[in-house]
Amino acid sequence: MSKAKWWTIAAHEYSVHAKRKGFLLATFGTPLLLGAIFGAVIAFVAFGNQSNNLGVVDQAGITTQLPATVTITDTLRKDVDVIRFSDENLAKNALSNQEIDGYLVIPNDYLQTGALRGVAAEGNLNSDAQGRFKNYMQKALISHQAPLDSVRALEPISEVYNRKPNSNAEISEAQGVLLFFTPYIFGIFLFITVFSSSAYLMTALVEEKESRVMEILATSMRPFELMLGKIVGLGLVGLTQISIWVGTALLGFMIARANIDDLANLTLPTNVLLIGAIMFVPAYLMVAGALGAIGAGVSAVQEGQQFSGVVSLLMISPVWFMTLIIENPNGFLAVFLSIFPFTAPIVMMQRVALVSVPAWQLGLSVVVLVGMAIAMIWLSARIVRIGMLRYGKRLSWVDIRRALSLGGQHGE
Amino acid sequence: MAMLNIVDVKKSFAGTEAVRGVSFNVEPGELFGVLGPNGAGKTTTIRMILDILRPDSGSIEVLGGAMDEAKKNRIGYLPEERGLYRNLKVLDCMVYLATLKGLERNEARKRASDYLERVELGHVAQKKVSELSKGMQQKVQFGTTILHEPDIVIIDEPFEALDPVNTRMVKDLLFDIRREGRAVLMCTHQMHLIEEMCDRIVMFNRGEIVLNGTLRDVRRRFAPNAVWVEGHGSFDNLPGIESVQTENGQVQLNLQAGTSPQSVFQALASRSDTTVDRFEVAIPSLDDIFVRVVNGERGQ
Fold first, then answer.
1. What share of chain A is helix, strand, coil (3-state, %, to 5)?
2. What Gene Ontology terms describe what this protein does at the molecular function level (chain A) (predicted)?
3. Is A411 in contact with B47 (Cβ distance < 8 A)?
4. Which residues of A touch B144 (CB under 8 A)?
5. Is residue A39 part of a domain?
6. d(CA A282, CA A368)
7. What pLDDT, in 10s, does the model give residues B165-222?
């Protein structure tokens, strides 16, 4: 087999599809859009409530152990000084002179009631200022060695701890959210990439049949070379896309973790990503084989889209069973869907995030997926042989059966 | 060594015989015409030559042996059902298809540019294929067929959508290929072009070859033993004439067996009341032969 020809096709497919406006928009637009939303939130937090310094009027005498000016570092590392005023009038003057954005009055009975009074130009202390005061008050209470119940009054719920269903390891609320969403986010990345690359393959084959370029291709190489080139080229297109998405997501995660205190202890479920990475190539080959066979067998793009919709539904079907899978990640349904090749990538990532999946199930899932990928590529090569020069009408079941049993004489 | 040697090739589809024992060969430096009505088995035979289909029996030798992957690069094919990548630029499309025939990319680009200049399409090199007229696309398509300088060029209706000027351009390119000792196998329904260009022809009908030979031989087989005469005066009562037919001012003198055109010419020359403007041995047009063959006649 001439290596050059399939590689020429792969390079051509990559070059054509990676330059498509739709691909560029999806590949760079998605992370840009998400980045823009994320950045806007951060900017809003960081700059929207941009505050100068804050004041405190301590009538209860609990801040005496603290310096007159305490620098508070907030979650975005923006330093703000909290200045203690001996008298509320001084604080009012500072507020009216815009030296401070607001001040907090700690009344005499604070330790009993936990109630504080905030004063700001707009009437209410904004959430950013409240966060800083919370931080300041914790420092004050600790330095004052206040009774424990007062601390609890100030912060009735400090943190929620969750656990995995079958694990004693405690995970934080944020970590739980991360574990819940990671398989779905990466599952959707995988689905979109695998499916869109395979759909490109199907469309390219149908268009080549419609435009009759197929006749030239058929006389320049073997059908297997043609399919190999297209699958490799479009697979690389998909790999580029998912790499950019996953890379951007990981970069965003690392930036967020480094800059947001509440996320500092989060750990990415690398086992989920590993499963996704292992399953990406066979999942792509399986779907590309299926859609390639459809592309060779139908006579119009629209017709191909109808058939490919079935494959798409199969792949995305785990979303319908999400609740059942989460409730019982080792139940029959979850295990079955994590081994059934079309649903395996998404469901297995979900299960791995929730429980320790037995090694044999992991192995079986990958083996079945790889087996299905090989079967689909074989099937598509056979159907391409018989369908590549069939113009204007789709292959019948009889044709397909003949292709499978005879190994393919193509054309009319 | 024959460029193509096809011996007793048969092919059936679902019990229907599409090609029935076809044999012919194409020599180097030859422009070989393939004629026949639609569905006669021409395209199936070409697809078997190109190894898209495999014959049920018989043998096909291409460039001295069985077809293999390397030989695919030595063949240029312009199919009847043709097309290009409509959304690609003309030059990119030509370069891509030429690289699939084994040409190195830079060389393909150079040859494609030269070709476009030669066929007066240099100005559309950076345009999308879809922006070109049908005739322009046809010339681009023809270019992709010959860019890799194949030893055998197989072309199906190469002059479709071309005006007389562009037809002349493509003809010149085909004559160049012949002059270089390469071979052209051409299918077309435009009989006058076959008559003008081809050295030998085969004619298919219902899966069989019903005519095979040089144009001269084929025409002689269908020649009616008559002469065509134009002039003034009477053409009746000439010795050795069986009958006289007149159509559009042209008179056809049908000769009796054993009468030669030479003796009729001498008889006419000796008549003082008759002037002859034109005298020609009646040779049927290929068009005529085609219709007669399709209607079941096989010639003498």
1. 70, 10, 25
2. ABC-type transporter activity
3. yes
4. 216
5. no
6. 10
7. 999 999 999 999 999 999 999 998 888 889 899 999 999 999 999 889 998 888 888 8
Judge whether residue A152 has pLDDT over 60. no
Whole-model pTM: value is 0.72
Instruction: Measure the CA–CA gap between A319 and A191, rounded to whole angstroms.
Output: 12
* Domains of chain B, earliest start first: 1-74+150-223 (3.40.50.300), 83-143 (no CATH), 224-282 (3.30.70)
Whether A99 and A213 share a structural domain: no
pLDDT at A272 over 50: yes
CA B254 to chain A, closest CA, distance in angstroms equals 46
Instruction: Say how many domains are in chain A.
Output: 2
CB contact under 8 A, B72 and A219: yes
Least confident of A19-33, A113-127, A338-352: A113-127
Q: Is the pLDDT of residue B162 over 70?
A: yes
In a domain, A38, yes or no: no
Residue labelled with tokens 């014959």? B55
Residues B184 and B182: their CA atoms lie apart, in Å, by: 7
The distance in angstroms from the start CA to the end CA of chain B is: 31
CB-nearest to B85 from A211, A411, A412 is A211
B49 CA: distance to closest CA in chain A (Å): 10
Complex ipTM: 0.78
From residue B153, give the alpha-carbon distance in Å to each of A19, B110, B289. Answer: 34, 21, 26
Buried residues in A33-51 as b, exposed as e (16+ CB within 10 A):
eeeeeeeeebeebbeeeeb
Give how far B13 is from chain A: nearest CA, Å.
7
Nearest chain A residue to B12, by CA: A412
DSSP class of A394: P
Copy the structure tokens of residue A103: 């001040």
Q: What are B125's two structure tokens?
A: 């090199």
Asked if residue A358 is part of any domain, the answer here is yes
- Going B37 to B137 to B144 to A215, the CA torsion angle's sign is negative
Contacting B with CB below 8 Å, chain A residues are 1-2, 4-5, 8-9, 12, 16, 210-213, 215-222, 389, 391, 409-412
Pick the range with the lowest mean pLDDT from A10-14, B8-12, B293-297. B293-297
In a domain, A48, yes or no: no
| Residue where the block lists tokens 């003034």 | B232
pLDDT surpassing 60 at residue B244: yes
Give residue A223's domain range. Answer: 3-32+165-406
- The beta-carbon neighbor of B86 closest among A211, A222, A410 is A211
Domain final residue, candidates A158, A176, A210: A158
Test A212 with B100 for CB contact under 8 angstroms. Answer: no
Residues of B with CB under 8 A from a CB of A: 13, 44, 47, 50-54, 69, 72-73, 75, 77, 79, 81-86, 88, 96-97, 99-102, 144
Domain boundary among A158, A186, A205: A158
What are the angstrom distances between the C-alpha of B104 and each of A412, B21, B71?
33, 40, 17
Comparing CB atoms, the residue among B54, B69, B84 nearest residue A409 is B54
CATH number at residue A98: 3.40.190
A150 with A181, same domain: the answer is no
Q: Are residues A176 and A270 in the same domain?
A: yes
At B63-108, the pLDDT tens digits run 999 988 889 999 999 988 768 998 899 999 999 999 999 999 999 9
Q: Are residues A255 and A377 in the same domain?
A: yes
* Nearest chain A alpha carbon to B13: A412
Burial string for A256-286 (b: 16+ CB within 10 Å, else e) reads ebeebeebeebebbeebbebbebbbbbbbbb
The answer to whether residues A57 and A190 belong to one domain is no
Task: Give CA A411 to chain center in angstroms.
Answer: 45
